Amino acid sequence: MGECEIKELAQKLGVKTNRYGLEGKNHLSAAKDESNPYFTFDSSQCIVCSRCVRACEEVQGTFALTVEGRGFDSTIVASQGDSFLKSECVSCGACVQACPTGALLEKSTIEFGVGDKTVLTTCAYCGVGCSFKAEVKNKQVVRMIPLKDGKANAGHYCVKGRFAWGYATHPDRVRSPMIRSKITDPWREVGWDEALKYTAGEFRRLQEKYGRNAIGGIASARCTIEETFLVQKMVRACFGNNNIDNCARVCHSPTGYGLKTTLGTSAGTQDFASVEHADVIMVVGANPSAAHPVFASRMKKRLRDGAKLIVVDPRQTDLVQSPHIKADYHLALKPGTNVAILDAMSHVIVTEGLADEDFIRSRCDADGYALWKEFISDKRNSPEALAERTGVAAEDIRGAARLYATAGNAAIYYGLGVSEHSQGSVGVMCLANLAMATGNLGRTGVGVNPLRGQNNVQGSCDMGCFPHEFPGYRHVSDDGVRAIFEKEWGVTLDNEPGLRIPNMIDAAVMGQFKGLYIQGEDLAQSDPDTQYEAAGLKAMECVVVHDLFMNETAKYAHVFLPGASFLEKDGCFVNAERRINRIRKAVEPLGGKADWEATMGLAKAMGYDMHYNNPSEILDEIARTTPAFAGVSYKKLDELGSVQWPCNAAAPEGTPVMHIAHIVRNPGMFTLTEYVPTEEKTTPKFPLLLTTGRILSQYNVGTQTRRTGNTVWHDEDVLEIHPHDAEQRGIRGGDMVSLRSRKGDTCLRAVLSERLQPGIVYTTFHFADSGANVVTTEYSDWATECPEYKVTAVEVKPSNGLSSWQEEYKKDHA
Amino acid sequence: MSSQTVMSQDRMLHKANQIALNFAPYPEAQAIEKIAEHLKNFWTPPMREQLVAYVNSRPEGLHELAIKAVKNL
């Protein structure tokens, strides 16, 4: 069946019989625990070696398993003798991997056995980018096991990557292209040629009628760098405009802007291993235990070993207090006040003389620093002045700032709780200011690190899937850069920025934008202000959805092209530490074409022939045109496993830590980060603030994880509300409640939670019918138009029915 | 200059004012330059043209620095 270390050992030693017989006391009748959807625990096969207990503690850091009883009665139990499903177990599978017998075993292995072929690949969920071996049997993937020397995960993994890949063969997968001339018509299955010819005809018709800029494309952060490079190439060289964007628009575009402005590169400064050398870790607006679990385990290991911890988050996340970890400071700020808190921390550092003046003098712009120093020292930026606004006691802000500045190596990790605000970009620049002011850049153990969401969102940004930048973050107005691509692509390129996703929707509502190619993104569910988004999509005449499944956006589509999963193609993903990891084809594409082939076909049908025999040729073109990727090739990736960009003549094996000799921008630039409160404010009508986040078992809009066994842990989005707020409104835990903002309303089940302060409510957005984005607003980051998902003024009331939007949704999905 | 309307007036004013407010802490000349540069780097020509047309007709509801920056475009 599976591998069994103990059986192999017995065979090796020639042990064939049990010399004690089977009559005595034994465990053979012990019950099997089959509650977990992915693995079983068969106590009768357990030798109580404790490897699983150690894996759960030392690797995963959950401490869910223990040995109960003594001597012969010793057994492994989860939590207090609960079933695995009901226990604290997070189903990472580290115990299954460690088990030397068949006691902990994947259900897939019991059903299908182990694979007869192994393909090295990379997980397609979050931005950690764990390396896996996909085991294939009879042209089907039967198991994903971690690669011990995978640099991002060092042999660890989580419930999503290790187990939740069944979506790839789910019956909902669309296997044939489809078209329809009106969105009210039924879909008609057609061949690839007809679908691409139809799309090409429509796109060219729209350009003739409404102008060259009336169409655009969105590249998928779920696809490979080769594929996203190709989509931006198609938009620029074939559509003839810069209307290209990717989902970083709604997540980390402020990271791109903020880190580029201050440090000169739009990416994290460290490799993940760096956290093992941090003395103080500051986590801002991120919940890695849920969203980046494998990195969270690495971070928790360092925290258990003694690093100090500052958490800046309105919610008491798992990190604030979990087994053997307790934050030294939890700054439980009011949503929307990141900039105030971070400015106040900088104020303390500068006014208390904790700044690293030598570092600043040698690496940062002197005028910029002088201006910032004066600005940040002003009393209006002191913790005392901002305490009421932020809801955090001045002493705690001072304490956290002193700890950050004086503990030794200080490392910042942050998430969408920083970027998805009206001042998302400013929040990112505040973090860079803090790191520069204290000299925490340019060596192991320090830095400013975005925990990026999608498997290849870093890569799709690197590949120039932005309306203002070519691959390598070079502005479209740069003549020299355009010349490189004009020569390579044989066309003249537009020197003006194109439309960002929200601008596309605005222009569509105004009747100026008519056609959109959307590769692997579900705008209708993931973007804010759902009803406005829908109005924009409805106003377009040709929407092309290229996806694995009929997603919410497909409701507004005229063409559907079946996408290929990560198991069905070759390419690279770039993770949050700039690591370029290979994915390799394990099975044939269910829809007939890898995504790069589909894009190539569409461009050709539109009259622009860009031909590649395989993705390695696309990577070679990337290397020829993009300096940070100059040294990258499939050959090198096969040899080294992975490399971190920049990878070029100066750094042929890549760059784990950036800004070592100098800050890339050279000199680093302090920026003025005035706290400008969001206009989204509580009112008597909407007295609560809604903030949003994620849960471990589900991934973003749930397109994939909802089609796996993971729904057993989370089958609906709920609204977390503080008992005090609930009581005032006559709400009990488990009640259905209506959640209303000035934008719209939806109904959810309420769960009472003291993880939040009174006045704040929280939900997730993994299920389309919960409609979290019906409630979110049109406000966005001033610099990048990244939506302000994290702050919405709402009211919550008891309810006994669905909202009108949900009724409508239900009707559509009946 | 074309008169394409690519966003609602409310959205345009909100976006432009946000940009102005975030550069406002800089000395005025720098702030104006940074706002103009931002608009050139990130707004499409029709978006900028719509803002310019608005400022030329009646600049009400727009931050003073944004008005000055638009004149620098």
Notable traits:
heterodimer; A: alpha/beta; Alpha-Beta Plaits; Rossmann fold; 4 domains; 33 strands; globular; B: mainly alpha
Uncertain spans of chain B: none
Shape descriptor of chain B reads globular
Total E-strand runs of chain A: 33
CATH second-level architecture of the largest domain in chain A: 3-Layer(aba) Sandwich
Let me know the number of strands of chain B. Answer: 0
Instruction: Provide the succession of SSEs of chain B.
Output: HHHH
Question: What is the mean predicted local confidence, pLDDT of chain B?
Answer: 93
Q: Helicity level of chain A, as a percent range?
A: 25-40%
Q: What would your notes on this structure say?
A:
The complex is a heterodimer of chains A (814) and B (73). Chain A is an alpha/beta fold and 814 residues long. Chain A is globular. The two termini of chain A are 42 Å apart. Chain A is built from 28 helices and 33 strands. By secondary structure, chain B is mainly alpha-helical. Chain B has one domain (12-71). Chain B contains 4 helices and no strands. The A-B interface holds A 213, 371, 375, 422-423, 426, 467-468, 475, 477, 496-500, 503, 506-507, 509-510, 512-513, 672, 674, 676, 679, 778-779, 782-785 and B 4-8, 11, 14-15, 18-19, 21-22, 24-26, 38, 40-47.
